[in-house]
Design goal:
Structural class: alpha/beta
Radius of gyration: 33 Å
Largest sheet: 4 strands, mixed
Order of helices and strands: HEEHEEHEHEHEEHH
Number of helices: 7
Shape: elongated
Helix content: 40-55%
Strand order of the largest sheet: 2-1-4-3
Length: 241
Amino acid sequence: MCFGAVRSIEQRRYAAVRQTVAWCYRGGSISAEPRINDRIRVPEVRLVGPSGEQVGIVPLAKALELAQEYDLDLVEVAANARPPVCKLMDYGKFKYESAMKAREARKNQAHTVIKEMKLRPKIDPHDYDTKKGHVVRFLKQGDKVKITIMFRGREQSRPELGYRLLQRLAEDVQDLGFVESNPKQDGRNMIMVLGPHKKKTEAMAEARQAQEARKADAKANPGKSQNAAETEAPAEEPAEA
């Protein structure tokens, strides 16, 4: 490799190091983890005790000595303060509890979901009941439902058929949802949006409670579901000779 190429590589490395140092100086951090114990490199810290009490500004050596005395970790919780704020805590326990809280928050997080159900203006009663059942299930889960009436051929000249069908569906599920967006024509389709009365978080909580209740009932009565299935099963009729 020629001298010019080596020099170019060294210049790029030097520029990258300078950029990293400048970023850290502006308050950035290479690691997302806070500095703990011997990784803290300052002469003194503002110390917070295990119960949240303010100890005051103490030398780093004294703070590390107290951490060892309490059998805890010295954790830097505010690196940009002058002097940095450190707290005495069980860092392993703190990380575990933080992870559990984040996991619970993700579990309870509600995402707005819009389901879609398509119908024809001249839908037969059986298909209507099936489609309505799906809409009921979506609303119970706390989801919005977009109802689309699809017109074909000469049906486009009779939009009132779709309008009446949408009104009928809205009345049939009014205990679970409300008309969030009134019926409107969109090309060959007519669209209406139903919103649930129950929030997504409430529906999720109720579903979890019902699941836990079923598990508890199954655990308390392990043979109940099997006996019920055997009782409800119809007896086989004898074959005709």
